[in-house]
Every structure is written in structure tokens, then in C-alpha cells.
Amino acid sequence: MSMGKKENTIKILIVEDSPTQAENLKHILEEQGHRIVHAMNGRDALTILNDQKPDLVISDIVMPEMDGFELCNNIKEDERLRSTPVILLTSLSDPQDVIKAVQCGADQFVTKPYDEKHLLATVEHLLHDVNQQDREDDSKGIYISSLRGEKYLIKSSRRQILNLLLSTYESAYQQNSELIRTQNELRALNEELDKKVAERTAHLNEEIVERKKAEAELKKKAEELRNMSQQLWQAAKLATMGELASSIAHELNNPLTTVGLSVELLIAKTHGDDPRRRKLEIIGQEVERMGNLVSNLLQFSRRNQQQISTVDVCDEIEKTLELIHYHLRKRNIEVAREFDPERPLIHADRQQLRQLFLNLFTNASDAMPEEER
Q: Looking at the 3D structure of the chain, how many domains does it have?
């Protein structure tokens, strides 16, 4: 048998629904100089066979439209095509595949995935078998029963059956050899794994001794870390209290200013002999005391870094004027606003800017003569 590339007129029909497997099989056979025709399923293959007769048919079994068994049976029932040898590609996953192959008259089995050398040897054998045309014609056939009780009508010749059984045995032997080789490889891998496990176990024992020494050292360090953690926790607690005090102070500062100005306005509108005046003065004193407390909180929690953001100066002026609205109205002060519509935004600390305007407007109102208001 020549395995190299050669030129001849052998035509082989490949029936395979997988384009990838069909292309691979085509490449292998074309390397031997064979001409290849491809069909996607059994029905397409019969259409091709009506127009031309190949020297060999290689067909997959599981296909849409028409499977390999039905295709082979149609070929063997056709007087013109009966002498064409058929190779079925199978995984031999079901023992009934062999019986079905005998029943439909297949000539050889090749198991998938196939070995290239074995496949080519099978192809060359069928193409050059001088006794291939010498078939028995048994129109009646015989019935055989499987172990499952199923009956099959077999019309294949004794030579066909023998060839098919031999190819099945060769495939089974090949798979068994591959299985033995795999088992030997697994045995070698297991031995290597056992060796590595033993080495690793010895290494782990050494690591355990080292780990116990490290644990003793860590226990000593843990006590030192515990003391340091206590100090850090205390520092974090103080920092949290500072942040909380700052938040409370900022939340109370503006409402207290509003309440103080409102109380001051109510006192101004109350006569000296009004019994409610004394209560308002007490409220004013308490508001002032709370204001001092807020100032102290702000001093306690003052940040080292400012919180800079993008602000609209005019917007902050308006909000500040809202806070001292009653204070200005009590003094009959009117505010004239002249804002530039094209004013830019600035980057500043919003709280400090608002406090600046509040101090500026309050001082200006207190210092303004009555005739200029």
C-alpha cells in the first residue's frame, strides 16, 4: 500500500453533515490523489449517485434527512450501485450498530475519531479487493435475533459479513490498545503523583514546625498590637467625636441665627410693661448661650483643611440676606441688588463664605446712620 500522494482516477463520495470533518477527510484522501465528491446527507448523496457512480462511498451514520444505514441500504438495493463498497463511520457506542451495518450491507466500519493510517489502509483494501465484485445473491436472506429480542433480516453475503465483522474487531482492538496505553499513562501519572505527595508531606511537616515557631512569635507581637490598637481606637473615637461636633455645630448655627434675629424683632415690637417681654428676653439669652456653645463646638472641631467647592457668590449673598431679613427690616434698611448676569463661579469654602457675608452685613447694618438707611 502506498501512502504518498499519487495521481489516479479513483472517485470517492464523502457523505458527512459536519463541514469540518468532511473537509478533514477530504484533505486526507486528496493527499492520496483521489477525486472527492461531498454530500451533506443521505438524500443529497442519492441525488449524486443517480448521475455518477463513485468507486467508494464513505458515510457518517448520524445525519439529517437520511442516515448512513438507510443510504447504504438504498445503494445495496440498487442493481447499478450494488457493487460499490460502502464504509460507515461510527463511534460504535451501540452494539446494534454492527447488526444494522450487516443488515444494510455495509462493507467496512471505521470508528470515529479515526486513525489516518487505519482509514487509508481500509480504503486501499476495498479499492483493490479483486473479490469485491464476487458477491452472493441471497434474495431471501436470513433472520437473526439480538439479545434484546429484536429481529433483523440479513441479505448480505457471507464475505461481506466476514469483512464487516473483521473491521469491527480491528476497531475494537484498536480502541482496546488505546485504552491500555491510556491506563499505562494513568498508572505512571499516579506513581508520579504519589511521589510528589510524599515529598509534599515531608515538606509540610517542616512547615508545621516552622509555623509553630512563628505562632509563638506572633502571639508575642499580638499583645503589642493589642495595646497599639487600643490607643488608635481612642484616637479614632476622638476624631469621630470631632466630626460629629462639627456636623451638629454647622446644622445649628444658621437656625440659631434666624431664631435670635426673630426674638430680637419680637422684643423690639413689645412694650416695656408687656409681661411677654421678659419671656422673650429669656429666650434671647438662651439662644445666645446656645450660640456660644455652637461656637465652642466649631472651635473644638475646626478642620485643618478647607472644603473647597464651586459656588455662586450671588446665590450665597441671597441666602445670607434671607437669614438677616428681619434684622434689616427692623432697622428700616432696604437692600439694592445689582448683580452681573455674566458673573463667574468661584472656588471657595461655602460655610466660611456665608459666615463672612453674615458678619459683613450685620456689622454694616449696625454701623449705618438712620438717615442713610
A: 2
